[in-house]
Amino acid sequence: MGNKLKVGIIGATGMVGQRFACLLENHPWFEVTVLAASKNSSGMTYEEAVKDRWKMTTSLPEKYKNMVVKNAYEVEDICNKVDFVFCAISLDKKQTKLLEEEYAKHETPVVSNNSANRNVEDVPVLIPEINGTHAQIIESQKKRLGTKRGFIAVKPNCSIQSYVPPVNALMEYEPQTILACTYQAISGAGKTFNECPEILDNVIPFIGGEEEKSENEPLKIWGKVENNKIINAQNPIITTQCIRVPVTNGHLAAVFVNFKKKPSKEEIIKAWESFKVPEIVLSLPSAPKQFLKYFTEDNRPQTNLDRDYENGMGITMGRLREDKIFDYKFVCLSHNTLRGAAGGGVLSAEYLKACGYLTAK
Questions:
Q1: How many CB atoms lie within 10 A of CB 223?
Q2: What domains appear along the chain, each with residue ranges and CATH number?
Q3: Active-site pick, 79, 87, 134, 158
Q4: What is the DSSP letter of 329?
Q5: Which residue among 79, 251, 332, 335 is the active-site one?
Q6: The whole model's pTM is what?
Q7: How far apart are CA 327 and CA 321, in angstroms?
Q8: What is the pLDDT of residues 139-154, one digit of tens each?
Q9: Which long-range contacts (C-beta less than 8 Å, at least 24 apart) are formed by 320-327?
Q10: For residue 151, what is the DSSP state?
Q11: Catalytic residue at 106?
Q12: Is residue 158 among the annotated active site residues?
């Protein structure tokens, strides 16, 4: 194991937990020492627990097959075996919030894929390329929790990962209003086509809670740390429609934007192509070499062709043009279970380690 940090995956049997397991199989900084899930899976080997519900296209890694799955509520025992945990467990928000806080209060940092703590004022919602400096709020959070090293950090909702990065690159032009229609893969619901027959030859125009998160979470990402909390930005005003489509992976968004200082099309493309990612982020193992990519072809990005750009960690854009109601419209794409879920969580953990927030016990 060397100098690797010991990691637990809470919710290891679900789709996002499985993705975490695959991403961490040969990670240079982190070593999985605990797999945990609900009591229904506890006591089984990981191979037994996911036997009929392994959802990745790659095989179950050999190193995990005989690991015995622990009950996620065995908090003290798990905390004795890890330096921090990733949390992707499927519980209601109240239960999730309490469980994540319990891990933190046992001096074990939590990097969460869940939404339960995203609205807590001293919990950072991280996209490291954009708002990594929000990690400074962790010190205030530790004072509230009464911990020395335990805290919670979360990654944002998968639906916003496609349009927040390209809009963020245009902040100097002061975007005022945004309409974003997202066309979201079934893996966002933790399902495969075999588990979601209702999506075949169909589009479902409702994803519970998704639009509220899509409209509000960007404002926290663009907010400021003041007086021991993150103050949400007031602008831009965002409205969304979130639609489930028959696609395995990849969330595509059609975005319309009005600016206070309207840029030219050339200025927008230049801002995307020249967007500067902090050096500390560029050096992380999971970071894309080029965060944003603009396609000049009229028919790109396409979900099937472009979701794996930069190992699924980059964002692609295309079809930028002026609009009759808004200033501009464009299409953008992100991989929802990589950049939008487990990959974003791993990148956030790498960033927190690089900044000294994640350390060995």
A1: 18
A2: 5-157+342-354 (3.40.50.720), 159-335 (3.30.360.10)
A3: 158
A4: E
A5: 251
A6: 0.97
A7: 9
A8: 999 999 999 999 999 9
A9: 320/265, 320/268, 320/269, 320/294, 321/265, 322/265, 323/256, 325/256, 326/177, 326/179, 326/256, 326/257, 326/258, 327/257, 327/258, 327/259, 327/262
A10: -
A11: no
A12: yes
